[in-house]
Every structure is written in C-alpha cells, then in structure tokens.
Design goal:
It is built from 20 helices and 11 strands. It has helices at 6-20, 30-37, 52-58, 107-112, 135-141, 150-156, 159-171, 177-186, 195-207, 211-220, 234-240, 250-261, 265-274, 279-297, 302-308, 310-323, 332-340, 354-361, 367-381, 389-401; strands spanning 25-28, 45-48, 62-66, 71-76, 79-85, 87-88, 102-103, 122-123, 129-130, 143-144, 174-175. The strands form 4 sheets. Strands 1-2-5-4-3 form a 5-stranded mixed sheet. The protein has a two-stranded antiparallel ribbon with strand order 6-7. Strands 8-9 form a two-stranded antiparallel ribbon. Helix 7 packs parallel to helix 9. The chain is elongated and about 85 Å long. The structure holds adenosine-5'-triphosphate and magnesium ion. Adenosine-5'-triphosphate binds next to helix 7.
Length: 402
C-alpha cells in the first residue's frame, strides 16, 4: 500500500464513479511510477475497462481526443483526466505502433502491452498496487527493464529504444543489460519511426537531469545514427556531452549541440527542419546561436543587448559560460542590470515617431523616416542624447543640416 498524494486523491471519486457503473478503473503509467520514486507528479493517467462510449454515458463533460485509440478526457472537479480503455496491441506494422488496437477487459493484459516494468504498475483507489511485472522492484534497483523480451518489444515499436534513453536521462536509472543489448542490436529499426515521435522523446531527453549520460548513451548504442541529421555527428555529440549543462533550457541545449557543428546557414536550417520543430522555436534557437557567436567575438555592448533582447542575450551568455566550463548563471545579474538600464527597449519606446518627423521636416513619407528613427534610436541607446521629444527634434535638425 502506498501513500496517496494530492493529484491522486482528487481523482479517487472519479474512479469510484466508474466502478459504481460496473467497470474497473485504476491509476497507471508515469504518475504511479513517479509517486513510487518520489518525483513530482504531472498528470494522473487512468486506465479503465469501460470504453469511451461507455464513459461518455457516465460523465457529462468529456473531450474526444483519440476515441479510436480508446482515450478520452474527462473533466471532473475542475480537472482534466485522460482515461484510456484497457487495450492490447497485438498487431504491429513495420516496427511501428499497432495497426489497430483491440479493447480488452483485463487490466493484466493492458499492463503487459506497456513498455517498461516501472511504467506497468497500476494503483487502485485505495492505493493498493497491482504490479505483475515487478515494476516496484525495478524502481528500487533503479533499473529500466522492458516488460517481457526486449528484442520482441523493440521490434514491435522501435520508439521504445529512445524512450529507454529518455527515462535514463530523466531518472538516472540504468538500462538493464539485456535491454541495452537489444537497443544496440535493433537501433536501425528507428528508421521506421516518425520524426514527430522521435522529436518528442529527444526533447525530453535533452531536458533530463541526467542528460549528459543519456547523450553519451545515444552514441554508445548507435541510436544517434538513426535520428534526424545526427548520423555523421558522433564527435560533435560526444563533445557536447563534455560540458556540464547546468540548468540550460531545451532551446539552449539545441543551440549547444549546433554550436559544435560549425555549420553554414543552409545546413543549420536543413537540420532544424528535419526535426520538424515549430517555426518559432527554430527562430529562437537560431538567434541564440547567432548571438553566442557574436559573444565569442566581443563582450555585450548596449546596442547588442538592445538588439538581442534580454531572453536571447541571457541564453547566449549562459551558453558562453558553459562552453568555458563556468557556472551557467555567472554574471547574469550584471547583464540584467545593464539591460534594465537601457533608456529604451524597443523602437516604439522612442518619444518621437514617423508622424512627428513628417510634421517637422515637411517632406513626403519615404525611407528617410526609417533612417532618421534608426539614427535617433542608436543615439539614444548609446546615451549620446536623451529620449526627450524636444531634444530629439533639435538633434535631428542639426544632423539634417550636415
Ligand atoms: P511522462 O512523465 O514523461 O509523461 P510517462 O511514463 O507518463 O512519462 P507517456 O509517454 O505519457 O510516458 O506514456 C504513458 C504510459 O503509456 C507509459 O507510462 C507507458 O505505460 C505507456 N506507453 C507510452 N508509450 C509507450 C510505448 N511506445 N510502448 C508501450 N507503452 C507505452
Ligand atoms: Mg505521461
């Protein structure tokens, strides 16, 4: 019996409601694992013998998220819970996820289809554990072990190999010998896995507490060879793992990796596109990298800080520190003070605008407006003149005469 915590206690009435209607329902997956480890719990996942249609008859507020896979979201007491119908995944196609799912009525079979023993533990509403594959023992031993034969399980779904390394990164658990052997032998099966699924696991890997070890594991197992754009980068990846990444964000980790590559813009774009990252994230990573390179050439000037913005400048500075084997946040407070002391943070903070210029100079609108605004902006940032309307007017008139 394990001590239940807040997120579970809130969902106990939901389990009771499903049971009252004549079905089974349990807590499962990552949340039960994290409870046993003592890690912070994100979402409470629930597995039930009731199908989505049956669940909809019990609860008034539900959201369809993947009915064909047996998953629906139930809104209950102000929270959203993902409930997945017990299922088995007997048919696999091309080493990918199951071609179809089969709903079943047994918890045991549902647990059997799960990837690792630590993820195949169920907990009932009283906190009693149902653990047919000795997941609790694996957690005690801090071991990542597949449910059943690892060769078979990885052939069914190659993504599980990446998941093993991602859990290694998040939890610091070792990968059991036979599971590791299977990983090395079957790494090429990752060719069949979609980029989207790989990216999700890779970003979790990059964010893990034990990411340094996990990144090395990617090279030791040859998994890296089957990830987008990484096939020829063994030495770059190995190099990246030499740095202590402190509390770098995922975007900063991408930039750290790319910094090792010394690529041209074109190769850089192709790499980030291959991972199908969102456009916004790609731009952010590219900015980090560009400013990091500038930072290697010289220290922050007022103008550089202004152009980069604080988020990017701070990220680039953190990367700069890490690449010098220093504490990530060294000098960051100073950088923040410098940024805060900038007289303006953006062009629209100037006390003058295009309309003022037209009125003062009585000229038709054209590129000259932008030129003058840019000149005023630079002078204000470098504290050559004050950001005051009258002062700017006088300064611009004087410039106009020369
Ligand atoms: P996280 O804390 O990152 O959410 P998690 O263990 O909950 O970790 P999910 O990807 O959310 O991971 O999956 C939920 C559960 O579904 C897992 O704990 C596992 O039991 C099962 N599962 C997920 N993906 C697979 C897979 N590819 N093969 C088998 N079982 C899987
Ligand atoms: Mg989860």
């Amino acid at each position: 019996m394990s001590d239940m915590k807040e997120p579970f206690l809130n969902a106990v009435p939901l389990l009771e409601k499903i049971e009252k209607a004549g079905y089974e329902a349990y807590f499962v997956g990552g949340s039960v694992r994290d409870l046993l480890i003592g890690r912070e719990i994100s979402d409470v996942d629930i597995a039930s013998s009731a199908t989505p249609v049956e669940l909809k008859a019990i609860f008034s507020k539900t959201i369809d998220v993947g009915i064909e896979h047996g998953t629906i979201v139930i809104l209950f007491n102000g929270m959203a819970y993902e409930v997945t119908t017990f299922r088995s995944e007997s048919e696999y196609e091309d080493f990918r996820r199951p071609a179809g799912v089969e709903f079943i009525r047994s918890l045991q079979d549902d647990l059997m289809r799960r990837d690792f023993t630590m993820n195949a533990i169920a907990m009932d509403k009283q906190g009693k554990l149902i653990d047919p594959f000795r997941g609790t023992q694996a957690i005690k031993e801090r071991m990542i072990r597949t449910v059943g034969d690892p060769f078979e399980r990885f052939r069914e779904d190659g993504l599980r190999m990446m998941r093993a390394i991602r859990f290694h990164s998040q939890l610091g658990f070792e990968i059991e010998d036979k599971t590791l052997d299977a990983l090395k032998a079957l790494a090429p099966l990752l060719k069949h896995i979609s980029v989207e699924r790989k990216t999700m696991e890779f970003e979790k890997l990059l964010a893990g507490t034990y990411r340094k070890d996990a990144i090395i594991k990617l090279t030791e197992t040859d998994i890296y060879q089957f990830l987008p754009g990484l096939a020829d980068l063994k030495s770059e990846i190995t190099h990246m793992a030499e740095y202590d990444c402190g509390d770098l964000s995922v975007e900063e980790m991408w930039a750290l990796l790319l910094f090792q590559c010394k690529w041209q813009q074109k190769e850089l774009d192709a790499f980030l596109k291959a991972w199908k990252l969102p456009v916004k994230k790609i731009q952010y990573i590219k900015s980090l990298l560009a400013w990091l390179k500038i930072r290697f050439a010289k220290n922050w000037t007022k103008s550089a800080l202004y152009q980069a913005g604080f988020m990017i400048a701070a990220g680039a500075e953190r990367l700069f520190n890490i690449l010098h084997h220093q504490e990530a946040n060294l000098n960051l407070e100073h950088l923040q003070k410098s940024y805060e002391s900038l007289p303006i943070k953006k062009l629209t903070d100037l006390e003058i605008n295009g309309g003022d210029l037209q009125e003062w100079f009585q000229k038709k609108p054209g590129p000259w407006i932008k030129e003058k605004l840019k000149a005023a902006e630079a002078a204000v940032i470098n504290q050559e003149i004050e950001n005051k309307k009258e002062i700017l007017r006088e300064w611009l008139s004087r410039c106009n005469q020369n």
